[in-house]
Write a structure and sequence with these properties.
homodimer, alpha/beta, Rossmann fold, six-stranded parallel beta sheet, 13 helices, DNA-binding, DNA-binding (chains A, B), transcription (chains A, B), transcription cis-regulatory region binding (chains A, B), DNA-binding transcription factor activity (chains A, B)
DNA sequence: ATGGCTGTTGTAATCGATTACATTCCGGCT
DNA sequence: AGCCGGAATGTAATCGATTACAACAGCCAT
């Protein structure tokens, strides 16, 4: 009847039936030999394996997924694909997913054209068996989707209030480490370049910075808290604000390495020297941090490990195909990975005022 | 019979039959209303659309792909997922692919565990309708796969000899621009930090650099050509080699920005100043280049555009489901995108010897 | 020897969407 | 009136793998 593909079969692409014929067994036996070898006799198993090798059989995943009512893939929602901070995390996820035979689909949540619709699709949809979300500021329709949403794990960022599983780092503690480092060097006037205000990471790091200052009895002048948005460009803008101040903080904690680099870059253009004139601490420990001039003192996040952990958690959730809460009781729970202060050349004792 | 999923249907996930029932038409009409609206009457079409909205129907892609003998996705083979140079390209690909309703699968060809097997799978396999390869050094079994391989487009790197379609930049010309810039500033001793020797980009850029030097009648001292591998770390090693020279080139063209940054970073540690003591030119124009200290003079590659172009080319290839050569005659052909010299602070006239 | 048991294999239903072919309907033409 | 052609729709086969159930063989115990 329907043969628009006269060549397709002829050209190759053997199916399970071809293998069965070649091995002299039924398709059921082939299927079992490949996915549950214990169920078939050694003789049949060998025959099937041989037939597979001879025919060059590759399983058709669409058929398998249809039958199993699954999709064979996980979706990763990332705010900015081109941001190197995320690519290391992606790499971690990819490794685990590929070991588990799962495809990793990457979707940029901040893509211009019709992003909203597309994201909603991924959420509500049957297009993924699991979801890893790296973006804590998804559109509102996030949870409106429907009850049969795939398991979700948040990584790095998360949505407050939702009791989703997540893999994060101790952002508050990282900020405390950063500020205490500056204090330990003798700084008394400390500033902070913040991320976007609605971002959960911004809030946690800000809280940590505030706490550390308060604990040391330091005055947290509101003019020393610069609004920015994690990008290089916003770090540059913060540097301009810093330059315009009457009384300048001698130590600056930036909520991202990108901002710290932008900040230092702009200061350099204006002849201000780091760390001689001002000390700078970043957050993330991106690749370039170690090799920036000066090398950036920063808070290291285990980015690759974050991705791996999130993927492992998601797999556990997917395997125990129970409801979220049940799986949780079963063992999976949110993980907070440690951060680490990496001292490099961008910090020193404050200049003698 | 087989009902391991008693809840699945009940829980929701309407199928095309449910929609048909709700709309009072047959499944054939639903299918046509959704994918070939011109074939059904306005009345039926509206009824179907209404039923879709009511039931919250989402098409099952596995079923569609099975029937259409396709996979609904394209695979991107990238050498190092965590390398920011590639993530911008990925972002370009992702945008085009998502517009076309295709999933983008990302696979890291340099992943530790069993990478070879996995890659071969992607190639020979029915796991993708198309393939974009960003790695010019794939394992040898690349073309041995079989005749029913999906369409392939190379981007950035490519395999010499294979007459595959590709999207590249004019690497040779970029190198000429870089070296001529140094020559124009008055440099007479020019060095080159190279990429890995088996890499096609290394070879093209090296050729361009050599040609430009020869054209200006400059001596290309072999000791001024440093072996490296595009990474930050290898740029640092190159800097050490440079420091160890008796007679040092006053201008250095690095085959990647990452190496240029590593190079400058290491020189800085040894008190050598850029551009006062030595001028440095990079290649790529990665994000940090503009904000490095000093800002890096470099050759800009349109990374996002490279990704978009490759994706568009692949789509054209996939649509015209003809053989590679036929599609080529039909219009698609390899594209070479232009590069651009971006002059910044890392280059200046040579010091008075 | 008969019944029960385990281990292995085959038959055929099933997942959900697409589409070839058949059917129906209706207006226009001879 | 009868026939033709085109538009709209329905019926059912199909894609390829999985697996419930049935069938059967071999073995032990009663």
């Amino acid at each position: 009847m329907d043969d628009r593909f006269p060549e397709a079969r002829a050209a190759g692409n053997p199916n399970i039936g071809d293998v069965a014929r070649a091995a002299g067994v039924s398709t059921a036996t082939v299927s079992r030999a490949l996915s549950q070898p214990d169920l078939v006799s050694a003789k049949a198993r060998d025959a099937v394996l041989k037939a597979v090798a001879e025919t060059g059989y590759k399983m058709n995943l669409a058929a398998r997924n249809l039958r199993l009512r699954q999709t064979g893939g996980i979706v990763v929602l990332v705010p900015h694909l081109s941001n190197p901070f995320f690519s290391a995390i992606l790499s971690g996820i990819a490794g685990i997913a590929s070991q588990a035979g799962l495809n990793m689909l990457v979707a940029d949540t901040r893509e211009a054209a019709g992003a909203d619709r597309r994201i909603a699709g991924y959420l509500h949809n049957n297009s993924a068996d699991g979801l890893i979300v790296l973006d804590g500021n998804l559109p509102d329709n996030f949870d409106g989707g429907g009850r049969n949403r795939p398991p979700v794990v948040f990584a790095c960022e998360w949505v407050e209030g939702h009791d989703q599983l997540s893999v994060t780092v101790d952002n508050r503690h990282g900020a405390v480490l950063a500020v205490n480092h500056l204090i330990g060097l003798g700084h008394r006037r400390i500033g902070h370049v913040m991320g976007p205000p609605d971002n959960i990471l911004t809030q946690r790091r800000l809280a940590g910075a505030r706490d550390a200052m308060a604990a040391a009895g330091l005055n947290a002048d509101p003019r020393w808290f610069f609004n920015a948005n994690f990008t290089l460009a916003s770090g540059i803008a913060a540097a301009r604000s810093w330059l315009a101040l009457d009384e300048r903080p001698s130590g600056i904690f930036c909520s991202s390495d990108a901002m710290a680099c932008g900040f230092m870059s702009e200061l350099n253009r204006h002849g201000v020297r780091v760390p001689d004139d001002v000390s700078v601490v970043g957050f993330d420990d991106i690749d370039i941090a170690e090799h920036f001039i000066p090398a950036l003192t920063t808070i290291r996040q285990p980015r690759h490990r974050i991705g791996e952990t999130a993927a492992e958690m998601l797999l556990a959730l997917m395997r125990g195909d129970a409801t979220k809460s049940a799986a949780r009781d079963g063992g999976e729970k949110s993980t907070v990975l440690p951060v680490e202060l990496i001292v490099r050349g961008s910090t020193a004792a404050p200049p003698i005022a």
